[in-house]
Every structure is written in C-alpha cells, then in structure tokens.
Specification:
The chain has three domains: 3-51, no CATH class; 61-130; 161-258. The protein has twelve helices and no strands. It is mainly α.
Length: 259
C-alpha cells in the first residue's frame, strides 16, 4: 500500500472533497483492505481531534487602514472640485497596493494553517502509534498482571479500535490468567460495543468463558446491548450443572430482560 497516496485520498474522503467515483473506490478499499481501513481510522481520529482547534483569522486592522486612506484621497479630490467619477492614479495605486497586501496576508495564513495542520497530523499520528506500541508491549508482559492491566487501559485513549486492537483485547478477555485483566479487557471492549466486529466477539466469548466473575460481567454487558441472539446460550448456562448458582441467576435475569 502506498501510504502517502492513501493518506491524501483518505483525507479528501473524510473532508468530503472526493468526487463520486473516488468515494466509491475508497469505500470499496475500506471494506476489503484492512491496512486502508486502519489508516482511515487513524486519520479520522486525528482529524476529529483537530476539528476542535480554533481557526486562524486575520485582523481587521488592514481593511480599516485601507478604507481610511481611500476616504482621505476621495476627500482631497472633492476639495479640488474634481469629478468623483475620475479617480487619480494615486487612488488606484493605493487600492492595488492594499489589495496585494491583503491577498499576500491571506495566502500567508493559508500556508501557515496548512503547515500547522500537517505538523499536528504527524504529531497525532505518532502519538496514536506510540500508544499502540505501548499497549502491545504491556499486554505481552506475561510476568506482571499489573502491567497488562495498564496496557489494556491504554485502549481507552482510542476513539476507535482497529482490527489489531480488537483482536488483542478479545484474546486477553478470553485467555489471560488474571481475572482482573480479563475484566479490564472486557470493559475496554465495551467502549466499542457499537461496532459489529466487537459485538460478534462478545457474543462468541460467552460460550468460552468459565470464570464466574467474567461470565456475570459479560452477561450484564450483552443484556445492556440488548443482544437477543444470546438467549439460547443463556439457557444452556442455566442448564449446565457445572455452572455456579450466581451465574445461573444472572443468566435467568438476562433471559427475562431480553425476552
């Protein structure tokens, strides 16, 4: 994937500057290319963060100075009883000069604003990537549950979770040896529960969980999501002789709320 080319195309796509054909091509790539989709999510986070920044606006002093100079010149013409219709070359030179200055200032602000935007995009992309790398390193620490907990907490910094982050959180929720770490991963996933891939992973996880604490928390989240597709799984839990009473009670409650 040509990253620089796709960054430009995706920025235009997000800003609504792409034509219909380009939007269709980008949408197709987002649906079928995980790398493009991941880059889109990163850029979208960056642009959303930038949208809250104040826009630069030029001062009105330049316009006021031009209007004052023009009025003074016109007043001088009228005092000499020269027809207002015929302005002196000086007026045209003043007008042209101020127009050039205003145009130059406008171009300067545009250039500065775009340079600052590029710098901010680069800084925020680096920050997102640094957070991702820190999260991966901490979660991979098999010696310290507290470090893995901190790694999972980094997921809260992301507005959107890409495929890699979701996969890591799901794996942690299903396989980590620490109940607390698994609960933290479940809580992190709940932030992105409106995304289809996350909903699917949570539903599939219900049949894999054996830790009663995680089972109860997961059932509560699925009920909160109003996920009626888990009713059959909840019924199986209530009939499983090996399931703790507290989990069965939560499953019964879930069935009643979803039915």
């Amino acid at each position: 994937m040509d990253k620089e080319k796709w960054e430009s195309r995706l920025i235009d796509y997000i800003d609504g500057k792409s034509d219909e054909r380009e939007r269709m091509e980008v949408a197709h790539a987002l649906e079928h290319d995980p790398e493009v989709r991941q880059l889109y999510q990163q850029l979208n986070e960056v642009i959303q963060a930038m949208d809250s920044a104040s826009a630069l606006e030029p001062s009105g002093k330049l316009k006021a100075a031009f209007e004052k100079a023009l009025e003074e010149e016109l007043a001088g013409i009228q005092s000499k009883k020269i027809r207002p219709l015929y302005l002196s070359p000086l007026v045209y030179r003043i007008a042209a000069g101020f127009a050039l200055v205003i145009l130059s200032v406008g171009i300067g602000y545009w250039v500065i604003k775009n340079q600052e935007r590029e710098r901010e995009l680069a800084d925020l992309r680096k920050q997102v990537e640094d957070n991702r790398n820190m999260m991966l390193a901490m979660i991979d620490n098999q010696q310290s549950a507290s470090q893995r907990m901190k790694g999972v907490s980094v997921a809260y910094e992301f507005e959107r979770a890409d495929d890699e982050i979701v996969s890591i959180l799901v794996k942690t929720m299903n396989e980590d040896v620490s109940t607390n770490v698994r609960l933290a991963a479940l809580e992190a996933l709940s932030k992105f529960m409106d995304e289809n891939r996350v909903r699917t992973s949570l539903i599939q996880s219900l049949s894999q969980q054996k830790d009663p604490v995680v089972q109860i928390a997961l059932i509560q989240l699925l009920v909160k999501m109003k996920e009626k597709g888990v009713i059959d799984q909840l019924e199986k839990i209530t009939k499983d002789a090996s399931t703790m009473k507290a989990v069965k009670d939560e499953a019964y409650s879930g069935i009643l709320k979803l039915s």
